[in-house]
Amino acid sequence: MAAHLDWAPVRLEALTRLFETKESWPEHWHWDWSKKADLLDLLAYRCMGIECEGHLQGLMMTSTIAKNSRLRPRGKAILYIEYIESAPWNLKALVENPKYSGVGIALLEAAIEFSEEEGFGGRIGLHSLPQSEEFYRNYMTDMGPDPDHAEGLRYFEMSAEQARAFLEGRK
Amino acid sequence: MALETTKRTMTLNLTEKEMQVLESLSAQKDLTKTAVIRQALRLYQLVDHRLMKGEKLFFEDQAKRQAELMVMM
Amino acid sequence: MMRMSNELFLKRAAEEDGCMISAIGLKPLYAKTAEPAQQAGEPVRFAFRTLISYRRRALRLTMEDVAQKAKVELDELLEIEENASYVPEPRTVQKLAGLLKLPIEELLVLSGNATAANAVLTEAAVRFAARSRAVEKLNREQNDALNEFVKVLVDQKASARKK
């Protein structure tokens, strides 16, 4: 988790420069990792990061028990992405020349793989921040704003078929 | 990609009823019986963890009225 | 287990094109659940108003200067410095933090936009509020109070970073 902290100054500095844009303030900054690090001791949660050039480029935390599938067939176990984020220097919303692309794709692929390892068939689900909805809509089913979510974020789910299509390059 | 590749084997002694439940959940969830047991273990650990922290576990009915589930540990 | 081909990965990565990918789940990762002790009460809000006002004056800026340089509305600035119950937009707080060189996360807590991780910040704010009085120019005592409070904010930020 300590490696994740070197994102904070870059993120802050980039956001400070973004006064003029109409982007709403991203919620990231108040995810208090120090309080939640103890979750990592639990079997249900798994954390995965991508490191390149000595820096953390992307981070993802998943749960095997948080949610059941809402897409048909319903009520099946899915791998739920509790948290996923790319380092601020990889985002065109925050910096002029993003460093690495493909962090999201790589983490999604990893999530599908975790899901398959668990016997969940590649099914995954997540609640997207508004700025990321466009990205997830390419590969997952947008199931609309979730009233059970603290911030009413839109819930996206990927079925087993969609997972296969994602890996094979089909739409 | 997989984290832990070393697995240990255990023999589980279950009653007839427990076995039926295990098989039923396995069929319902499309999971192997092992996967069902692992999910159960994860859920149990998580619930216990939070209860030990002093939190409470609730089920909420459709009408959003709360019914408290007391899980005695 | 099926993996994406390299060509497909590269194609998809290019399409990703620096897009935001953030997702956040249910309760476990939210820090928003407020513990009553850490919620910004009246003295903390007073500390926020006073901090902004004093800092501005310590930097020898008029409200008009601040409004112009930070690109905030003058009436919003007046609300911030004079209205007891006003909670500014996070974006405004961010702009002020930048201009006045104050730590943003701590400022967001003080302004009522976020909850404090611990009681240290809240206690320091209350002490600062108690020591402050509204006069035209900062006297020595007020300067000392201001500097001490700012030091706590910076220390808070530094210790939050270390975790």
Report on the architecture of this protein:
The complex is a heterotrimer of chains A (171), B (73) and C (163). Chain A is an alpha+beta fold and 171 residues long. In chain A, 26% of the residues lie in helices and 23% in strands. In chain B, helix 1 packs across helix 2. Chain B has one domain (17-69). Helices cover 47% and strands 11% of the residues of chain B. Chain C has one domain (37-162): lambda repressor-like DNA-binding domains (434 Repressor (Amino-terminal Domain)), CATH 1.10.260. Chain C is elongated and about 70 Å long. Chains in contact: A-B, A-C. Chains A and C meet through helix 1, helix 2, strand 2, strand 3 and helix 3 of A and helix 1, strand 1 and helix 5 of C. Strand 3 (79-86) of chain A pairs antiparallel with strand 1 of chain C.
**Fraction in helix of chain B:** 40-55%
Mean of residue pLDDT values of chain B? 84
Low-confidence runs of chain B (pLDDT<50, min 5 residues)?
none
Gyration radius from CA atoms of chain B, angstroms: 16 Å
Strand content of chain A: 15-25%
Q: Domain count of chain A, please report it.
A: 1
- When the domains of chain B are counted, the total is 1
| Largest interface in this structure | A-C, 67 and 44 residues
How can the largest sheet of chain B be summarized? 2 strands, antiparallel
Structural class call of chain A reads: alpha+beta
Strand order of the largest sheet of chain B: 1-2
- Estimated helix fraction of chain A: 25-40%
Structure annotation, total helices of chain A: 5
Q: For this entry, what is the oligomeric state of its chains?
A: heterotrimer
Task: Please specify the SSE layout and strand pairing.
The complex is a heterotrimer of chains A (171), B (73) and C (163).
Chain A: H1 7-17, H2 33-36, E1 45-52, E2 55-63, E3 79-86, H3 103-117, E4 124-128, H4 133-137, E5 141-145, E6 154-158, H5 160-168
Parallel strand pairs in A: 3-4
Antiparallel strand pairs in A: 1-2, 2-3, 4-6, 5-6
Chain B: H1 16-29, H2 33-52, E1 57-60, E2 66-69
Antiparallel strand pairs in B: 1-2
Chain C: H1 6-16, E1 23-24, H2 42-58, H3 63-70, H4 74-82, H5 90-100, H6 104-110, H7 119-131, H8 140-162
Summarize the structure.
The complex is a heterotrimer of chains A (171), B (73) and C (163). Chain A has helices at residues 7-17, 33-36, 103-117, 133-137, 160-168, and strands at residues 45-52, 55-63, 79-86, 124-128, 141-145, 154-158. Chain A is an alpha+beta fold.
